[in-house]
Amino acid sequence: MSTHLHELIRGLPKAELHLHIEGSLEPEMMFALAKKNQVPLPYASVDEVRAAYNFEDLQSFLDLYYAGAAVLRTEQDFFDLTFAYLQKAMADNVRHVELFFDPQTHTSRGVNIRIVFAGIARALRKMQHEHGLSGRMILSFLRHLSEEEAIATLESALPLREEYADVWIGVGLDSAEVGNPPEKFRHVFAIAEAMGLHLVAHAGEEGPPAYIWGALDELHAERIDHGVRAEEDAALMHRLQEQGIPLTVCPLSNLKLCVVKDLRDHNLARMLRRGIRVTINSDDPAYFGGYINANFIATADALMLNADEIVQLARYSFEASFVPAEQKEIWLRELATYAAGFQ
Ligand code: ADE
Ligand code: ZN
Fold first, then answer.
1. 58 close to ligand 1 (CB < 6 Angstrom)
2. Is the CB of 75 under 6 A from ligand 1?
3. Which of 16, 94, 222, 238 has the fewest Cβ atoms nearer than 10 Å?
């Protein structure tokens, strides 16, 4: 592809809506924190960690991802992790981030949920204040655990609601999908909905289209994370298109976790051309070989996206975000001006 389109992508104002903050833990930081916090790692070097990143499916990745996250212990660790990611996002011309965090990964190791909230929120607020990069956080439940544990997690976060009202905007559902359908979390999502939180869920990454139906109908998810298996179900595709339900797609993640064999087989362009509101995101960039611009560039190259399609993906990213309409308008105008200057 022409370097002209790569340039378009690099400068493109965009939002990132599917990013697990624990998945932005680079091996260098993993090693530094392991040493500081005296957490043993099963690797001798940073190179050895990177060499281990050969996954055959979601579970083989999750095993390493949870092991890596064990080095995070203090408020400063969560701040440093989040701040490092936000600096990369800013360099990629991301204007707004809605990141996932998995409190259960940390509370199960004895880290208080207040520490997790405090470190992430401090980094988000600092970036907003000093650089105008907007950031929000979505508390994600681990679906391989029980619904009771998810409810207990939400209840433990309730007293923090006011203190973090400016940044904590929603709940999500992640971890091992197959065998853990959305219905399992019906009650906890109903509680979150009653609290006025936004609702999203991973569905149709490895799981069948029925899980996407379940996320929409049982959990009332407003966006679907991944959703690539929707294409197997014509009625579902029709619904996503009709109702304008956004999908937060993560192409390099899908490649690394063998959801697709080759990026040229990815259905993102087909879904986009059928009027589905797809967006491009990085999921767990430290593990999957690239942040958001790398995802855009690899996808644009593999699927031969044109300039209009690339701009449309960025437009959808702002439209699908959970910010007030006036703020979306500001970013959409900036995007339109940028795109017009690129003809
Ligand atoms: N947790 C972190 N990344 C994930 C993914 N891609 N799918 C499910 N759970 C995750
Ligand atoms: Zn994800």
1. yes
2. no
3. 238
> Other C-beta atoms within 10 Å of 232: how many?
13
How confident is the model over 68-97, as a mean pLDDT? Answer: 98
CATH number, domain with residue 109: 3.20.20.140
Tens digit of pLDDT for each residue in 145-184? 999 999 999 999 999 999 999 999 999 999 999 999 999 9
pLDDT digits (tens, 9 = 90+) for 240-299: 999 999 999 999 999 999 999 999 999 999 999 999 999 999 999 999 999 999 999 999
Pair 189, 147: CB distance under 8 Å: no
* Catalytic residue status for 242: no
Domain span including residue 176: 3-342
Q: Which of 205, 206, 218, 232 is catalytic?
A: 205
In order of 180, 227, 266, the CA distances from 230 in angstroms are: 18, 6, 13
30 to 78, 124, 284, 306: CA distances (angstroms): 12, 21, 14, 38
Could you give the CA distance from residue 212 to residue 205 in angstroms, rounded to a whole number?
9
> Which of 219, 186, 217, 184 is CA-nearest to residue 201?
219
**DSSP for 86-122, written as a single string:** HHHHHHTTEEEEEEEE-HHHHHTTT--HHHHHHHHHH
